[in-house]
Prepilin-type N-terminal cleavage/methylation domain-containing protein (Uliginosibacterium sediminicola), 160 residues
Amino acid sequence: MKSRIRVRSLMKVGALRRQRRAGFALLEALIAIVLFSIGLLGMVALQARATQMSIGSEDRTRAAALANDMVALMWNTNASSVSSADLSAWQARVSDTGNLGVPGGVGTVATPTNCNVIIVQVAWKAINKTTAATSSAASSCDVALPANTNSAYKTKFVIP
């Protein structure tokens, strides 16, 4: 009789242990899903940031090419200024995003006084930038950033 009671009590202990472990697998699965979700959200955020940086890089590349076009035109004509028709056409290309321009683009060609340089600047409104850049000129031989823009590419070259 004693052995029967002991067997039954061992069975009850085993059943209690199984009941305690019954929800453990579910808890492990829930924790794994939460960790996987956090990792997946991190990867999505990383991909979004990489896309933003790619767009910013593309804008900088287009701005450099546009500024280079103006400098090449000045070198080809061997002049330190361009005609108003050429300047207007170039400024239209800078602001035309359908024709390799930059968003909100403003193109300027400046010759600061008492400086032996010409500054070609392409400024634009970068989508991924939240803070506006300073609009004042850094030195007397510099040009300020136009209104409603937060990024700029500047090329300076010595007047021949």
